[in-house]
Write a structure and sequence with these properties.
Length: 178
């Protein structure tokens, strides 16, 4: 029976003993196992990362999963959603296309099908653009809140509440500015 590896990822770092305990990761694994059963494949390995696919953080399980399929240790790498695989766009997808078979289940895309290649690249670029926009929106919103003296969390060291909507340096009349 042909084998398949599953790559699962949860974006926000959550500390648990086993990242496979996370509900979204469990759901991805169930989807992958269902795809394998439907297509007559046996799951060989399940790779799980509990971190961002956008930042420059090292993704050890992703690297192992991609290495395994590129080295021919397993013929297929399955991922529930393309944006779980990468948010870095074509830079991370193109080296795999034409070399290894990757299934993106939700999108119904298979890198071994010629007509899907353009769609895979396009969807990867859309995921990258979404992440860039989200990063910009968050950075701009936080800067606006800081400039207005509003904080999402606790006050930084050396600041005290100077009314319901502003924060000032302790023993200072100067409002902190970002």
């Amino acid at each position: 029976m042909e084998e398949v590896d599953l790559y699962l990822r949860k974006s926000k770092k959550i500390r648990t003993e086993d990242p496979r305990d996370l509900l979204s990761v469990q759901t991805q694994e169930e989807l992958g196992r269902a795809w394998a059963a439907k297509n007559g494949k046996r799951v060989r390995e399940v790779w799980v990362d509990n971190l961002s696919a956008w930042s420059d953080v090292t993704r050890p399980e992703f690297d192992k999963a991609v290495s395994a399929v590129l080295a021919g240790e397993v013929p297929i790498l399955w991922c529930a959603f393309l944006d779980r695989f990468t948010r870095k766009g074509a830079d991370e997808i193109v080296p795999i296309l034409g070399t290894a078979r990757v299934i993106f289940d939700y999108e119904g895309l298979d890198s071994s099908i010629e007509r899907d290649r353009r769609w895979i690249i396009d969807r990867a670029e859309q995921a990258r653009e979404f992440s860039q926009r989200l990063s910009f929106n968050l950075t701009a919103t936080k800067a606006t809140q800081r400039n207005a003296g509003k904080w999402l969390g606790r006050l930084p060291y050396g600041f005290e509440l100077d009314g319901p909507d502003t924060r000032k340096l302790k023993n200072s009349a100067d409002t902190w500015r970002y």
